[in-house]
Structure formats: structure tokens, C-alpha cells
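[worker-b] picked up task from shared queue
[worker-b] task type: protein-ligand structure
[worker-b] ligand name resolved to flavin-adenine dinucleotide; SMILES cross-checked against name lookup, match
[worker-b] sequence length check passed
[worker-b] input payload:
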Amino acid sequence: MTPPSSPPLSIIIIGAGFAGLTAAIECHRKGLTNLVLFEKSPSLSPLGDIISFGQNSSRIFTNWGNLPDLLSPIIHKADQVHFHDSSGRFVTTQSFKEEHLAWGERINGHRGEIHSLVYSHALSLGIPIRLGVTVTKYFETPSHAGVVTSSGEAHTADLVIAAEGVRSKARTLILGEEDHPLPSGYAVFRSWFPTPLSFFSSPLTSHLVSRGDTHNAWIGTDVHFLAASIKNGKEISWVCTHVDTSDISESWQFPGSKPAALSLLQNWDPVVKELVKATPEERLFDYKLVFRDPLPTFVSPEGRTILVGDAAHPFLPTSIQGASQAMEDGVVLAVCLDRIKGDGTKVKEAVRVWEGLRYERVHRVQKTGVTTREQWHKADWDVIWKEPEVLHLKREGWILDFDSERDAEERYERVREGLVKEGRL
Ligand SMILES: Cc1cc2nc3c(=O)[nH]c(=O)nc-3n(C[C@H](O)[C@H](O)[C@H](O)COP(=O)(O)OP(=O)(O)OC[C@H]3O[C@@H](n4cnc5c(N)ncnc54)[C@H](O)[C@@H]3O)c2cc1C
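[worker-b] inference finished, payload out:
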């Protein structure tokens, strides 16, 4: 029962990435509308390149008005991927048709374009999003949590949701100390650009773009290269994951070097080299992958500040689940807060149960990032030529055919009772 005189549960969200926006939209969908979102960027420019949402998160978009219709024209349409060795010899095709029929569509597209549609949807609901506000400090007491912004303003609420991505400042409050990223030993060259006209006629590249969208993978020793054409071949995106131990700072916007990429791919398929050569210099980025050990908890000592998305659990791109798990966090959180609707004194219960529902799943999914990379980078080609399916992406039902909202509704009470028995509630 909600105490009759209590004000509605108040929430501050930091970060307007997919984690923060999903938490805001899903809370709003459950009637929790006393919230505000702070984002440090003064404007949301369409940054990034290809991003993937598995069926476990594409189903979330279907609850958000006409978003699926708006996404349809901008997403990648191929439902198969062709694998090659590094010299370009065809190895195998993996079809996604059956899983699309069984589990629904995946969504692959430009991060900036998809993000801007989600952002507009949040605005259309009336969610207050304050751009250009950087949070510099987190604090909490038993009765509330708060943040201080770079202009010195302090804001408090029943709950603070830190969705600030991999460089999260709230991790210090949660852990009681600063944690430092470790080099993963890998980096990714990434690019997205309008398909050059010459690609449509060149015998090297026309198969990539002339008959609609395509998806191709080239697998070498400790390097893999993925290329996808989008919007009926009009745009093209490629990513190349490779060994790199030089630098551990992490940013989506490090400029990449074409000569460095070409020298890495010297003896590779001419198709791959053509993709790199055609890349406009200013559209090539070099994303250094860092690694963070799993956190012992996502919840602050007083249970009033939590980490969601990459702030809690950064993913390797080879898991293809970073954005999906960030969205699941928001969906499950909204279910948990709905159970204590209006009662700010029960926030600790809601967030502890939320963590109980999320912790094991996100860390199990996180591990698939390493297994997929190793499956490709350390491939035994004697085995592969006999059994090419070894290269296929593992598409697992427990990850993809998963309804995070239903699961949370079904398990909330059991997890809560377990926490009570353990004396954690
Ligand atoms: C610019 C950018 C480009 C990206 N491009 C790709 C891509 O091409 N492909 C891909 O797979 N993934 C990409 N990602 C990462 C991907 O979006 C995330 O891994 C995933 O969606 C999880 O999202 P998140 O909301 O947890 O984190 P993020 O997407 O990192 O969002 C965090 C948000 O918090 C804001 N923020 C951070 N610190 C503060 C602060 N102190 N105060 C206020 N706001 C703060 C950031 O500006 C950002 O908007 C990109 C992320 C960013 C930020």
C-alpha cells in the first residue's frame, strides 16, 4: 500500500544512452513519471556506427508507439552472413531466417540514427531531458540520493540511476574506491560511409551493394573483419577487430589510420582492402577495447544509487549484446519500481531485487564476447574446412528468445523472498 500522503517516487537518471533512455521510457510506461534525465552532451549528434539489438531487446521497441515503423527503413535487411577466410575463400553461410521466424527480428543499424529515434520518442512522452548537464559527484543518505553538476547545482531524489557508460563516475560510490580499466589486448577499426558509386560497377565490390543489403565476415588469425551494407546498399559499414596493446584509453571517437589498417590487412582479400581504401579518412575510428572485472554489486550501500548499462557491465562487441543488456536493465528496473510504486521507503527492496534478477544473466552473456572472439581468432582451419559451421555465431535461445519484462514479473517475488531469507532485505 502506498502511504496516502507520500509524494510520487522521484528518480534522477544520468546519461541519455540506450540504458538511460530505456530506463526513463520504461519507468514512464509504468506510470513513474516523476523523473528527470541529465546528459552531458549539449546536443545529441548522430555519433557511432553499426550497433546491434538482438530479439531480446528489439521486442522492447515494440512497446514504444510507432518506433518499429520508424526503424524499418533505416535498418540492415540481410538475414544471412557469408564467412570467408582472410584470403577471400568462401567458407560457409549462416542463415538467420529460422530464428527470425521463431524469435522475431534483430535490429542492426546506425547507432546515431537509432539513438535519435529513441531520444525523440522519450521527448514525445514529455520526459524532461536536460542536455549539457555534466554530473561530477554522487552522494547518498539513508533517505535519498543525489548528484552535483559541473555548475555546482545539487539535485536529490529517492533513486539515482547512473547510466553514464564505461567511464561512470558513480562506480566510485558503489565500490568505495576508483576502479581502473585494463587493456583487453584488442582494438577495433570502425567505419560507416555512403557507398561510393564505383562500388556498384566494380567486379570486386558490386556483390556487396548491388542486390540489396549484404553481410560478410572474413576470419584471420587474431583478426576478423565484418562488412555490412545498409539501406539497399546505399551505405556501408565495416569493423575490424585486431590485437592492440598500445593504449588503454577508450573512446568511440579516436581517429583511425588507414595506412595502419591496410598494413594489418596486407595479404587479405582484395575486397577487404578495397573497403578500407574507399573509407573517407574522417570516417575511420579506432576503438580501443578495455576490460573491466565484473563488479561485486551494481547497488550503492544505501540502496539509492544504481549502475545500469555499460556503467555496470561493459561488453565486448563480439557479444553483440551490449545495447540489448543495457535496455533489459531499464525494463527490469521499471518492473521492480512498479512493485513499490509511490513508496520511496521501499527503493532498497526494488533495487536489490532488480540486481538479483540481472546479475547472473548479464555476466553470463558478457562471457560470450570472449568465446565468440576466440572461436574466430583462434580458429583451427583444418577443422573448419571439414566442419565450416564451427564459424557460425552461436545464437542461443536463453539470450535472444527472452522477455525481460515477463521474466521480472514472474520472478520478482521469489528473488525478494530469497533476499529476505539471506538477511539482505
Ligand atoms: C558516442 C558513442 C558512440 C557509440 N557508438 C557505438 C557503435 O557504433 N556501436 C556500438 O555497438 N556501440 C556504440 N556505443 C556504445 C553503445 O551505445 C553502448 O555500449 C550501449 O548502448 C550501452 O549504452 P549505455 O547507455 O550504457 O552507455 P552509452 O551509450 O555510453 O551512454 C552513456 C551516456 O551518458 C552520458 N554521460 C557520461 N558521463 C556523464 C556525466 N558525468 N554526466 C552526464 N552524462 C554523462 C554520455 O554522454 C552518454 O550519452 C557508443 C557509445 C557512445 C557514447
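[worker-b] attaching auto-annotations
[worker-b] The chain has two domains: 11-76+107-179+294-421, 182-291.
[worker-b] releasing lock
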